[in-house]
Specification:
This is Universal stress protein family protein. It comes from Mumia flava. The protein has about 110 residues and is an alpha/beta fold. About 35% of the residues lie in helices and about 15% in strands.
């Protein structure tokens, strides 16, 4: 699952448009590359993909609703948190199951 931000535009009547086909195409291409990489590295792992035009916490909560465990990755850039709370902390408040965070230095599937 990949969450991406849509650009917004407002017409003179105040109607907000969230559709940006280029952003969705870019997100879908990114997800396809990641899925191909995972399938090549771990062929026994079932991989499904989706792209959602919403923020990361909302997208993860939407997809993880009802799951026993939600596993998310974290990059080295995770130190910057403009909202004060990490994605994993905000997600843990929204899903009923556990949230597991896998960092870039954790064990790699082989």
């Amino acid at each position: 699952m990949h969450a991406f931000r849509q650009t917004t535009s407002t017409d003179p009547f105040g109607t907000i448009s969230w559709w940006d086909p280029a952003a969705r195409d870019e997100a879908e291409q990114f997800v396809a590359r990641v899925a191909a990489h995972v399938r090549a590295r771990a062929p026994s792992v079932q991989v499904t993909t989706t792209t959602l035009a919403m923020g990361p916490v909302a997208a993860l909560a939407w997809e993880g609703n009802g799951a026993e465990v939600v596993v998310i990755g974290r990059s080295r850039r995770a130190w910057f948190r403009p909202t004060g709370l990490s994605v994993e902390a905000r997600l843990a408040r929204r899903v009923p199951g556990r949230v597991v965070v896998v960092g870039p230095d954790d064990e790699t599937l082989r």
